[in-house]
Task: structure prediction
Amino acid sequence: MAGYILAIDQGTTSTRSIVFDETMQIAGVGQTEFPQIFPKSGWVEHDPEAIWESVLVTVKQALKAAGLEASQIAAIGITNQRETVVVWDRQTGKPIHNAIVWQDRRTASYCEKLKREGLEKTFSKRTGLLLDPYFSGTKLSWLLSNVKGARARAAKGELCFGTIDTFLIWRLTGGKSFVTDATNASRTLIYNIADNAWDQSLLDILKIPAAMLPEVKDCADDFGVTEKSLFGAEIPILGVAGDQQAATIGQACFEPGMMKSTYGTGCFAVLNTGRDMVPSKNRLLTTIAYRLDGETTYALEGSIFIAGAAVQWLRDGIGVIDKASKSGDLAAKADPQQDVYLVPAFTGMGAPHWDAEARGAMFGLTRATGPAEIARAALEAVCYQTRDLLDAMCRDWKNRSGDTVLRVDGGMVASDWTMQRLSDLLDAPVDRPKILETTALGAAWLAGSKAGVWPDRKAFAKSWARERRFEPEMDPKTRVAKIKGWKDAVRRTLTKG
Result:
């Protein structure tokens, strides 16, 4: 069989389906957005039926764009928005409520209650996560408490819980497969990442019946076969991973010490720690990077809230640029004698500071400060924050050896100026790949390698192609001074400490 692989990338605001050919190049793409639902302040929901329809539509679009029939696809890989919760009826397949999205904050008070009861250490030790509404467990508990009769029905085995991958696989296989993968399970707050099993003691705390949980599989595994009526042929589903883990795989970060950073609205950095399940003392997340052939590889993950959003602010907030692509050109014109710092705490500060009450601030303004200096400060802020994450990861993981090379993806990495400044401030090389669709590529590789039509891990890592490497060029004294200035700016912005 030809090595065509279909990757379904089910994101927060849109769904993309991409067909890759046997050389791992893109042959066809389909994409569609779906509605966001905001019932109350801080609440975010999706209609699972809208997500399902978006998958059907985009798969057909991608096949058409590639000029292929479904029978020519060797396998499907799925990657998905993580932590989003769906509960549905085991008999009918119909959701009992809208999906509660990872961004949703409705369980904040519940999380605070659990913290006051001294339970955060229990959850962190077993799951590697923090007690935060971000993760699935408290969202699921809320659904069971707030949908009439849900908890009793779940205990009888009448209801199914899943993250988006599980729901899609259930639908694609006509209810024959009720499964997830280890990466998605590791983000639920109820999965013991050391034992690789659902944790009964955490289920008891959150009052979640074990009968509603899916089977947890490796990332490259047999997840079932699509119904022929959907696309015209049965297609095996052979790969699944949450979006940031899929991007880590797509960047071929298979060796301990390798790190990828995705620059979208925010930034997600993931450091492969190999077999070391590293507990964080710097409020990073310990998570499963992937599980292949029964062997678990762990990672440290950190997120910052504002990356690409800083460029959007330059464009839409203060109007210093009319196109996002012009930010680097404007920054390059900045006066090197002016030390201007933007701390982009527009929605608080993420890892490793975790200060929800902090707000954005700018330091070092003079009469000579203009749009160029502000643009540079906004882009540098993303670089400084990445360095803060990397520093925290290095403090957490003492077994680290060798020099870090950062592999990058996401919209911001198109800016040469920003990537050069990132390398300068990290004092480390930054590699930009030829294929920027790394999330979809990661899911595709899981499926393609399992199907035996794509290279194995070693060969895939070898085939990973760099478009450009950025090497540090900044004078060390300048770097030290700039980082000192950044730390001072952050210290003055934080509300705690």
Q: What stands out?
A: The longest helix spans residues 371-396. The chain has a mean pLDDT of 92.
